[in-house]
Write a structure and sequence with these properties.
Blueprint: E1 27-29, E2 36-40, E3 43-49, E4 56-60, E5 64-66, E6 69-71, E7 76-79, E8 84-88, E9 99-102, E10 112-124, E11 137-142, E12 144-154, E13 166-172, E14 184-194, E15 199-205, E16 207-212, E17 215-216, E18 233-238, E19 242-251, E20 259-264, E21 268-277, E22 284-289, E23 297-302, E24 305-307, E25 316-321, E26 327-332, E27 335-337, E28 341-344, E29 348-350, E30 356-358, E31 362-370, E32 373-380, E33 387-389, E34 393-399, E35 402-409, E36 414-420, E37 427-434, E38 437-445
């Protein structure tokens, strides 16, 4: 049975397309190549011009295993076609050398670009490893932007306390707090992350991001084993990164100092319909920290929840850490439960009153300005605070059993129905109805 592991010594026939990313060397890379198909063991990759007009499209036709990093050229698109790339450690390859899948690296002129879609990444044998020199990532965009769509990353972990193991790492900076590089943009949609070591999703540096429908699980060992030895962060936004996270779920972590979301010297971050929850020892749900940088942070969370179900209640749901003038934080209609303190620090919590739809109602008043004249003043009630109009109010007047008028009113409106009767025409009957229900019958004598 042929192995999915392809070594560097694999021959490439004349005219074949290089797919060196499946080699067993420490670092390998795709190369730009003409359109075609390459066969490496059981792995087949189709290379074609990218429909977007820039770079090339690489399409997996089956699952792939690798001992080393797969690096794609700038402007590449990788369509996993629903297949899986498995990073492997075994007795001959103890520690995976770095990232499983990596972008090209941007330069001083522009960020590089990588688009990945319909791909799964996982690991095999990582429970027997020790570390990757602090370089382990599932997907790594370094000084690069692009997009990740319908991507899962699982098991980027050795299950220990080494500061590595980011399931998805997107960094755009020189080093440390030096973010003097061209700004990158990245979009993540329908991303599922599980069993990472240090960070589920890392967004770091001079970066603008949009995240939608992300599911970020709890940090753990490569096969889901508990890993309480490291303070993991499910989501980290740091060093000037700005953007939004929408319709996503983020899990709490198992170390007391771990968080579900760490905003460290972030710039402007919006959470919309984001749910943070878990039965975990983590003492902080969201940590907004700005203690060592001049970048002002603005954080807004609309809707969603920050809940902790572990007992007894402990820690802080939303922690604001930094000078008051460096952070502006606000939660709007966010449910924060299961903590000793919902919010710690300078933050505004706003609860929007529930708006109720009510049907318009009203009153009437009859008068006789002249003996043979009847006047009915109709008044629709005004809406109360936090009310919106439902059904309108309908008045009906009948004279001597016959329809005479229908008056429709919105909230707050006023109308008058009046009629004079000729002398010596007998006694007339006037009926007033509100929404079809009789209110009163009046007799008007003309004698």
């Amino acid at each position: 049975m042929s192995s999915h592991l392809v070594r560097r010594s694999t021959a490439v026939t004349a005219g074949a397309i290089l797919f060196a990313g499946l080699a067993g060397a420490p670092i390998a890379a795709f190369a730009d190549a003409p359109a075609g198909t390459a066969e490496f063991g059981s792995a087949t990759v189709t290379v074609s011009d990218d429909p977007d007009g820039a770079g090339q499209l690489y399409t997996l036709n089956e699952d792939v295993s690798t001992y080393s990093t797969i690096t794609l050229p700038d402007d590449a698109t990788l369509n996993g076609n629903g297949h899986t790339i498995t990073a492997v450690e075994d007795s001959g390859h103890r520690n995976f050398s770095g990232s499983v899948l990596a972008s090209a690296v941007g330069n001083t002129s522009a960020a590089a670009t990588l688009d990945v879609t319909n791909l799964n990444i996982k690991t095999q044998g990582f429970e027997d490893g020790s570390n990757s020199g602090g370089l382990l990532n599932g997907i790594y965009l370094n000084r690069a932007g692009g997009s990740l769509t319908h991507v899962t990353v699982d098991g980027i972990s050795h299950g220990n306390g080494v500061q590595e193991g980011n399931a998805i790492s997107i960094r755009n900076r020189v080093s440390g707090d030096d973010i003097n590089v061209p700004r990158a943009q990245v979009t993540l949609s329908d991303v599922d992350v599980t069993n990472y070591q240090k960070t589920g999703l890392l967004l770091d540096g001079n970066l603008t991001f949009t995240v939608k429908n992300a599911q970020i699980g709890q940090g753990a060992g490569p096969q889901g084993q508990p890993n309480p030895t490291i303070a993991a962060n499910s989501l980290q936004v740091s060093r000037g990164a700005s953007g939004s996270v929408t319709d996503s779920t983020i899990k709490l972590n198992s170390h007391e100092q771990g968080t579900a979301a760490l905003l460290y010297n972030a710039k402007k971050v919006d959470f919309n319909s984001v749910t943070i929850n878990g039965d975990a020892p983590a003492m902080t749900g969201i940590d907004v920290s700005n203690v060592s940088n001049t970048i002002d942070t603005t954080f807004t969370m609309r809707g969603g929840a920050v809940t902790r179900t572990a007992t007894p209640a402990a820690g802080t749901g939303v922690k604001i850490d930094g000078p008051a003038d460096s952070i502006s934080a606000k939660t709007i209609d966010t449910r924060i439960r299961g903590w000793n303190s919902a919010i710690d620090g300078s933050a505004t919590s706003i609860t929007t009153p529930v708006v109720k739809k009510v049907d318009v109602t009203g009153t009437y008043r009859a008068s006789r300005p002249q003996p043979r004249r009847l006047r009915i003043d109709l008044q629709a009630s005004r809406l109360g605070s936090n009310q919106v109009e439902g059904k309108i109010l309908v008045w009906t007047a009948k004279v001597d059993g016959h329809w005479d008028a229908t008056i429709r009113q919105h909230a707050g409106e006023k109308d008058v129905w009046a009629q004079s009767f000729r002398k010596h025409t007998g006694t007339h009957t006037v009926q007033i109805f509100k929404n079809g229900v009789s209110q009163h019958t009046y007799k008007v004598s003309t004698s």
